[in-house]
Description:
The complex is a heterodimer of chains A (151) and B (532).
Chain A: H1 7-20, H2 30-33, H3 35-44, H4 47-68, H5 77-90, H6 92-107, H7 110-115, H8 138-143
Chain B: E1 3-4, E2 8-13, H1 17-27, E3 33-36, H2 54-57, H3 66-69, E4 78-81, H4 113-117, H5 127-141, H6 166-179, E5 184-185, H7 223-229, E6 233-235, E7 239-245, E8 251-257, E9 263-273, H8 276-286, E10 312-318, E11 334-336, E12 352-357, H9 362-366, H10 381-388, E13 392-399, E14 408-416, E15 422-427, H11 432-451, E16 456-460, E17 497-499, H12 514-531
Parallel strand pairs in B: 1-9, 2-3, 2-9, 3-6, 4-15, 9-17
Antiparallel strand pairs in B: 5-11, 7-8, 8-9, 10-13, 10-16, 11-12, 12-13, 14-15
Helix pairs in contact in B: 1-7, 1-12, 5-12, 6-11
Amino acid sequence: xxxxxxxxxxxxxxxxxxxxxxxxxxxxxxxxxxxxxxxxxxxxxxxxxxxxxxxxxxxxxxxxxxxxxxxxxxxxxxxxxxxxxxxxxxxxxxxxxxxxxxxxxxxxxxxxxxxxxxxxxxxxxxxxxxxxxxxxxxxxxxxxxxxxxxx
Amino acid sequence: xxxxxxxxxxxxxxxxxxxxxxxxxxxxxxxxxxxxxxxxxxxxxxxxxxxxxxxxxxxxxxxxxxxxxxxxxxxxxxxxxxxxxxxxxxxxxxxxxxxxxxxxxxxxxxxxxxxxxxxxxxxxxxxxxxxxxxxxxxxxxxxxxxxxxxxxxxxxxxxxxxxxxxxxxxxxxxxxxxxxxxxxxxxxxxxxxxxxxxxxxxxxxxxxxxxxxxxxxxxxxxxxxxxxxxxxxxxxxxxxxxxxxxxxxxxxxxxxxxxxxxxxxxxxxxxxxxxxxxxxxxxxxxxxxxxxxxxxxxxxxxxxxxxxxxxxxxxxxxxxxxxxxxxxxxxxxxxxxxxxxxxxxxxxxxxxxxxxxxxxxxxxxxxxxxxxxxxxxxxxxxxxxxxxxxxxxxxxxxxxxxxxxxxxxxxxxxxxxxxxxxxxxxxxxxxxxxxxxxxxxxxxxxxxxxxxxxxxxxxxxxxxxxxxxxxxxxxxxxxxxxxxxxxxxxxxxxxxxxxxxxxxxxxxxxxxxxxxxxxxxxxxxxxxxxxx
Lengths: 151, 532
């Protein structure tokens, strides 16, 4: 159950997100992954984002209707991308928030993190192993002599 | 006024890097010290590095930019007339809460730029005077590193061995060696082995959102417990509005809002400001009175002037192999000071340093990290992300900007904090010397990235969210006409008022300033004790 988006906006958002981050191999598309739910939660918490997304989503659906007499989700990927590029330049603030929040929701998703070959866990408490490195090399640096200016 | 309290000998305002060191130094020798801090105590176990949404906190409640965080304990900063946004944290520990703990000292030449290069001014103190305080500070903060760096006079033994290089550090070191350029394992205020009851770093990466292991030094976990055990008093949620004066012109104390929002006056025999290079001039300018119409301690007109940030350029190299670059303290691996000292043949004076930083987590990588913007959406997204994530190394080119009167902190006519105290505005432009210096640094950065084997190099010429270092706005000097405080940190105008933070810096050097800020604070504390 969406917190802010209407049913129509939920469908539209999923189609848009599938073009922001399309599927590729092991990586699901952002809309299919359910990033729209994350986005809905973020937008619901901010009056400014509600305003931006209401206007921005309307611009996308109106472009689909006026240019193709169809809903956005019924268009080909190329036609969808063309509309999104138009909206990216006409509604910059909306679009940059859309992309930012899509990346936020997508790249903290367990399936995506595992597709990247990582364990799906926060940095702590486990941390990461790290090679100490080749400290012998510093002898060569020393051999090149004093590097600071005498005063 | 709700209340007036018992007078203290020394009132310190601000519990960050400088205030903590100063308070500890006095308290351990039996002085009566009270510190007022507008923020509260952090709980290290609550830092979000253990949360699944850890990367999002960087964009919201743990953003380095107080305007983005917008917490009640923060004050807004009008940064519209500056290409660099000032960054800070307000809590016990100050900006050591969110810093990356890169810990290089100033060089001896940094204190003598007028004599050596004919620009700016010499400091009234020098490296030799600060040396014992650098070492003392290291012993409290806990520094990992290795002695023998030919870019510095000899230092005391480091508390723990260097932070592991990882593949990023190893690869970049090999690049520097290929060119025969200086590099060295970073001095880092992050312990690589247990020290002083604190756990060793386990290379989790995002130091900037707080260290649950207490491996990263912050003054709330090292100086403050020691200072309080020695008898220092620390009052949190206490936001100072102005410094008050006695009829004879000496400082009488401070008026502040307490945790309940009540106005209080704290009287003191001495008042000490450690509020950073923006907070300190803000407080002095907000303390204007009939006796000091242009702001307290401002007979020179230099309060708020000569703001220095250090411009940062980001040179990001992409490698054709998995470097696991998200692992390891994000700001600390190796440094290079090949181009630190002046070489007139380069067409500019002074210089810059390279700080080798690591990659970021998945979300921050997608958002573009410290680069010029997010990676593209659409059909190219997957390929763009995959060639970057875990495979990039970053050179932060940190340049010395010179003190200039037009770069300044003033009081914004409209903006206030949540207590209604007028907020600061910063105005800043890069000088011709800085522009040439940074261009040189970007070109040399690209050269060493290529030598290290990068298949692609991307450059962000000026990092907007890079104003970590707030310096120069109440500078030190012997001449009252040309400086705000003397070599003892004492105001030329108000004899029992002291400034101990980065505001007193005469020049900025080309390294992260915290070790030097703290050494200066300890030097001022030492002189204060001797003269009391």
